From TrEMBL, chain A:
<keyword id="KW-0812">Transmembrane</keyword>
<feature type="transmembrane region" description="Helical">
    <location>
        <begin position="234"/>
        <end position="252"/>
    </location>
</feature>
<keyword id="KW-1133">Transmembrane helix</keyword>
<feature type="transmembrane region" description="Helical">
    <location>
        <begin position="175"/>
        <end position="195"/>
    </location>
</feature>
<feature type="transmembrane region" description="Helical">
    <location>
        <begin position="264"/>
        <end position="290"/>
    </location>
</feature>
<feature type="transmembrane region" description="Helical">
    <location>
        <begin position="26"/>
        <end position="49"/>
    </location>
</feature>
<dbReference type="InterPro" id="IPR013525">
    <property type="entry name" value="ABC2_TM"/>
</dbReference>
<keyword id="KW-0472">Membrane</keyword>
<dbReference type="GO" id="GO:0016020">
    <property type="term" value="C:membrane"/>
</dbReference>
Automatic annotation (TrEMBL), chain B:
<dbReference type="InterPro" id="IPR050763">
    <property type="entry name" value="ABC_transporter_ATP-binding"/>
</dbReference>
<protein>
    <submittedName>
        <fullName>Na+ ABC transporter ATP-binding protein</fullName>
    </submittedName>
</protein>
<dbReference type="InterPro" id="IPR003439">
    <property type="entry name" value="ABC_transporter-like_ATP-bd"/>
</dbReference>
<comment type="similarity">
    <text>Belongs to the ABC transporter superfamily.</text>
</comment>
<keyword id="KW-0067">ATP-binding</keyword>
<dbReference type="Pfam" id="PF00005">
    <property type="entry name" value="ABC_tran"/>
</dbReference>
<dbReference type="InterPro" id="IPR003593">
    <property type="entry name" value="AAA+_ATPase"/>
</dbReference>
<dbReference type="InterPro" id="IPR027417">
    <property type="entry name" value="P-loop_NTPase"/>
</dbReference>
<dbReference type="GO" id="GO:0005524">
    <property type="term" value="F:ATP binding"/>
</dbReference>
Amino acid sequence: MSLLNSKVSKIAWWEFRRFFKWKQELISIGLLVVIMAVSTGWGAISAVFEEQYTGAIYFEQRANPGEYEAPKDITLRDAGSMEIEKWKTKLPEDLDVVVMVHPDNTATLRVHKRDDWQDELTDSLQSYLQQLRVAALDLTDEQRTTLDSKPDVALDIAQVNTDETAAEDEGSSELGMFLGIGISVGVFTGFGLMMMSITAEKQQRVTEQLLTIISPREWMDGKIVGITLHSLKAMLFIGLFFGAIALLAASFSDEGSVSFTIDLFVLVASFVFVMLGLLMINAMLAGFSATIDDPNHSSRSSFMFIPLLPIFLCFSVVDSPDGTLAQIMSILPVSSFMMMPARLAQTDVAWWQIGLSLALLVVSLVWMRNVAARLFAMGIQFYGKEPSWKDIWHAIRG
Amino acid sequence: MNIQITNLTKRYKTVTAVDNISLTVNSGEIYALLGPNGAGKSSLVRMLVGLTQADEGSIEISNSNGPRPQLSPEDFAYLPEDRGLYQDRTILDNLGFIAELRGLDKSLAQQRIEQWLEYFDLSERKKEPMRQLSKGNQQKVQLIATLLHDPDLVILDEPFSGLDPVNQEHVMNVLTELKQRGKTVLLSAHQMALVERLADKMLLMSHGRALAQGTLAEIRATLQPQRVYRIECNAQMAQAHWHQHDGIVDVTEIDNDVVHVIVDPYVDVEQLWPQLNQQVPMRSFSPLQLGLHEMYLNTIEQNNNKSKDIQHELA
């Protein structure tokens, strides 16, 4: 039976809509829009609220003082020697700073009190005075150019993969970590919704009537697909959210923008792995949930955390994509849907590893889906009580 | 749609829920399974709709085209005893979902939903979540969900429970109309007065076993072989004198001037009345027919007494 026949797709859509609350979604999207708007418009916003400082600059020896350009939030006018003499005893209230540039290309700042904005002015003056010092040296044009430009430092990465071909770093461990967080969010979303979906139906007594219309397998398949759509939606949202946060953080920093590139193959392969993995994990969670009658009184609820363990283990090896443990975890179905995309984003992965990992994931999904349907069919025979571990084992064996 | 159940048995670990039950439901009939809670009605129904498997016995389904291997979802509708719908979704959402799963065309489904909601006076509330409805109204929505696809066979487990008398009548009318349209209805209930008016045939169950089955007259013949009479006389004297009289099974004092007398089926009452009248003068007498409810209770009581006697003898 196809995973997406007509009834299954109807159930999947029903399950998706059942937990899709417009109000909450709009609040989340609104929050996201606000963060993105703030991050993109932060320059303009900060300019409005930026404090402006005024001061004066005095060159003890230079003839053309107008050359120095102060930071944009500081306005300096040229001062005369008489004013400087006067301000040595008392700095006027309308001036935040008086800059005195000495003949040896050093400077003194006279201020009312210490503040952060003075650091920016100090940096700016240091750069300017350094240029003056270089200009004062008796150098040829070639020497000046050499001094003005920074020396090259080449990055030579010597990496040998299993094919013993040269490897190229395609991403960073941050990307893998980011992916891991996204997948964790997807899995946790599935965990919560699947548990709620199945046990609430039992408590609301929906199960018996629907089972005369659809088979346990169709019902489970529909749930698995519907809840997986929610997991993917949660991942997409968290991705956009983190993106917006990164944009916001960058707008506060000197860099002002965030950018990373990702290969199309890596993107497509990652999507396939993540989707299959979420389907498999949600099938596993569906099977567990089907054996629980009342989540408030069942000791079995805690066992639903087991599928999450391999995902947490992945975090410890995500920055060593070519380590033995990372390679094993990228092939085992319980962790491959997180580890394989993380490796693909960071390093070259052998084709046989990708193929084996994908095949094992598909086989696990099919098996887990069948087990979930069998557990569900068995669970509904136990009116008001939970099946024993022995019953569960029999159902798993089919 | 005809149903032939033969020697059906279902056992759970320590309990035999259904014990060697056989019955036949013919097309266009209303057949009722009667009995108190725990009698085995729901277990029997669950086997019929395929939710559980029988340990012994067989269920055969046939229609005008001949025998069918099993019931398919299109053929029948099932209202379980253990029922409910999605509480956080509206009436329309719930009914729309069921109609979709039934494969109904969208416009036809919409038309039928509107008609049924109108019938049960729920049109105004169709956009309200289920949790805001009373238990009775939720029950009506559930019944609509059951009947939406207009099946040939309707199986209803306790359709009257939770309904007030007015809505019980509504449901009775719906079932009568289904019968008139040639549909087969199998229902389980413990409201015997309602079923007495509605069902063509019935099966009375207790502890998984059949106590009696057939038409009301056939049931009466099985459960009430003795004749019961209402006699106006001095009740105290009647109790004192008639109790030991040959051919009298029991004398029950109803009030000072009325007694109910159960007469042995083999006695000729024309000869009995003068003898009784000699002992205690009778002002009037008339035959009395017990309702299904009383017959059932009497039978259960007799069965309980019998089993107590057996236990006593064994002890």
